[in-house]
């Protein structure tokens, strides 16, 4: 079954989808799928998931999950999510001043943590409904979904930025017309917002989201709020936006709440790891290797950990990527986009 | 003559407005005020548009997805699990939806 069509184009991001087969083990149901969970990305970047294996997982999931099952389910989820957050924080704190070897290790570790995490977005299509069904046969109190959701947090933050810009005399229309030629304090407010909210966007890293000033200015144009007279909005920190993987109790109701929170944050985890953690490390590593930073996106995580392909292979992958106009249009990838993300520290 | 589609009512309430069909990822942010957004999957980063749209039609099913959690927070009438909605409805067509019964009607291009 094709679950998502042409969602991932960059070879580096595709390579973190290589552990999807572990989905059954992650929820303590590996015995139901002895050959692993059949899911993969095809050559066009479309995600395929076996309906048969999804049914097998549903059938094997206990109708009344016991304490041991929930503890194992949640222990693994907490560990994988916390591991990815920690690797992202570690990467962010290293680059660009860190030792080269430390930066390489941090990038390889972060990519491995992403690969461990990637089965979860598929599992969020299955597990929350099963946990809800289990609650129906249980007497546990149901917790309300976590609120405010990340989407509401983003909206409030965008509205604060719009109000501050309006007070500073910069309507969304004026900003869009003048960008990037705006006063430094206004530009800085927009760029800080983008850096803080880079986790909000499509699953494909390079598809523009709130990491991009142009995208953010389009979103600002839709905010109908007058100025508030408040001071410039402080950019939220990583800690303000990151979910706490340990926040919910190890009960069926707690697990449901945690999985709903994960459902809302799954793309945030993936984009934040890229923009805040990986990009600075790749930029620094590219300089060391004397390759264009954007070309680091055309190798796989295993090649980064071992031997890099030759320039000709990278050229072929880059050309194939830019020739796939269907993917580029679907994900709104402009010709300058990869350079805009990774900068041009080498050329 | 209007056409009818059926999904699952996810957030109660009725809405009517011109459709804004999202086909490329980044288009949702441009949804017009008062429109009914028609989308395959509604991601959390689309949330700011929920302040100004009148309704939401989502192809993906499931009452525990982003769209439903968000639309409840913003009190936007929503129908999910509407198969082929983005193929059958075009931007500008008038759409009515009932977030309780899960019915979606569309009836030609907006004037």
What structural keywords apply?
heterodimer; A: mainly alpha; B: 111 residues; mainly beta; 12% helix; globular
Q: Can you describe what's shown?
A:
The complex is a heterodimer of chains A (347) and B (111). Chain A is mostly helical. Chain A has 17 helices and three strands. Chain A has helices at residues 11-14, 23-26, 51-60, 67-94, 100-117, 119-123, 127-136, 150-167, 172-178, 184-196, 213-221, 238-241, 252-289, 301-305, 311-323, 325-330, 337-342, and strands at 2-4, 39-41, 47-49. Chain A has a three-stranded antiparallel sheet. Chain A is globular, with a radius of gyration of 21 Å. An eight-stranded mixed sheet of chain B has the order 1-8-7-3-4-5-6-2, covered by helices on one side. Chain B is globular. Classes of the chains: A mainly alpha (347), B mainly beta (111). The interface between A and B is medium-sized, with 39 and 28 residues.
* Structural class by SSE content of chain A: mainly alpha
As residue ranges, the low-confidence spans of chain A are: none
Strand order of the largest sheet of chain A: 1-3-2
Q: Which stretches of chain B are poorly predicted, pLDDT < 50 over at least 5 residues?
A: none
Distinct helical segment count of chain A: 17
Gross morphology of chain B is: globular
For the secondary structure, the number of strands of chain A is: 3
Query: How would you spell out the order of helices and strands of chain B?
Result: EEEEEHEHEE
Write down the Rg of chain A.
21 Å
In what range is the share of β-strand residues of chain B? Answer: 35-45%
